[in-house]
Structures are given as structure tokens and as C-alpha cells.
Amino acid sequence: MALIKDIHPDVLEHLQLLAEKYGEPGDKYIKSLSRAWHKKEKIFMKQVKTYHMTIETEIRKDERRAFILLTFSGSILGAGPASEDGSRQIIYASIGERKDVPEKLLEDNMILKSAVKLDKEASFSGGSFKRSSPVYKIALMNSGPAASQTKQLEDATRIMTKEFVSINNTIIPD
């Protein structure tokens, strides 16, 4: 059973803000949100294993491979493999607390502005998406053809988004 003490302090702070927003700041609701967070983390890690990704603490600015980020707010950001000019396709699902189909963003020609590091925002240029929430987990794709990495990224992001929304449907009040 997931315990509140097992939750990263920044994630717990986010969950407490959600509980206050919904007028349910008590321990019972915080525990429900904590269990949901643990489920989401397990889903993320299952996709990491399924697609043979590695968990990293940092992605260098010049990294060519695709990667997926899980943010402290529960959003998913997939960055496709870098093209010759360094640009990438970004898939962003701001799931957070939404119960319906999450708002998604798909943008091409995005450039990673700096290294992606745990606990920091991921910053991009070249489009409307500028930065993520602070990064909780980083998963890096194995080497392989760009088309294969892109397909795996799309599949993993789609699966996580669907499952995260399903979890939200059980914990977010109407």
C-alpha cells in the first residue's frame, strides 16, 4: 500500500494543492491521491521496461535519441529523436487533474534549449511549447532507427495517457 511518506516532497506538495482545490484536504483524500500517483509511476516504469528504455538523471542537449519525461505534476512529455538540425517532435499530454481526454500538444521542429535534468524544467524553443513542469523521471530510448523510436514513443505516450486519465476518473471529484 502506498504511503504518503513514500511520495517525493514536491509530488506531495502538488497532491496537497489538488486536495485543497477540491475541498478535501484531509489525510484520506491525500492517501487516495498518493495511491493514484504510485499507480501512475508504475505505469510509467512498465512502459520503460516494455520499450527497453533506461532511467536517466540527465539528458544532454546533444542527445540524439528519443526520451520520455514524467513531471511532478503528472504530465507526460515525449521528445522524438533529434533530426540532423537537432529539432525534435514533441508530444505533450498535460494530464494533471483532468478527467476527460487530456489536452495534448504535438509540435515539430522543437529544439532542446539545455540539458534535461531531474527536478528542473525541460526547456524548448522553436514552437509554442516553451517548458515543462519540473521533471520527476527521465526515460531514454535505446539506439535504433528514428522511425522505430518515434513509433515506440507514440505508443508509450498513448498508453500512459489513457491509463493516467482512467486513474484520474477514479479520484477526481465531479
Summary, kept brief:
This protein is an alpha+beta fold. It has helices at residues 9-21, 27-50, 146-171, and strands at residues 54-56, 58-59, 67-71, 76-79, 87-94, 103-112, 116-117, 121-125, 131-140. 36% of the residues lie in helices and 28% in strands.
Radius of gyration: 16 Å
Largest sheet descriptor: 6 strands, antiparallel, barrel
Q: Which geometry do the CA atoms define?
A: elongated
How does the helix and strand content classify structurally? Answer: alpha+beta
Give helix % range: 25-40%
DSSP strand count: 9
Number of domains: 1
Q: How many helices in DSSP terms?
A: 3
End-to-end gap: 25 Å
As an assembly, this protein is single chain
Structural summary, described in words:
The chain has about 170 residues and is α+β, with helices and mostly antiparallel strands. It has one domain. About 35% of the residues lie in helices and about 30% in strands. Strand 3 (about 65-70) and strand 4 (about 75-80) form a beta hairpin. The radius of gyration is 16 Å and the shape is elongated. About 35% of the residues are buried.
Outline the fold blueprint.
Blueprint: H1 9-21, H2 27-50, E1 54-56, E2 58-59, E3 67-71, E4 76-79, E5 87-94, E6 103-112, E7 116-117, E8 121-125, E9 131-140, H3 146-171
Antiparallel strand pairs: 1-9, 2-7, 3-4, 3-9, 4-5, 5-6, 6-8, 8-9
Helix pairs in contact: 1-2, 2-3
List keywords for this structure.
single chain; 174 residues; alpha+beta; two-stranded antiparallel ribbon; 3 helices; 36% helix; elongated
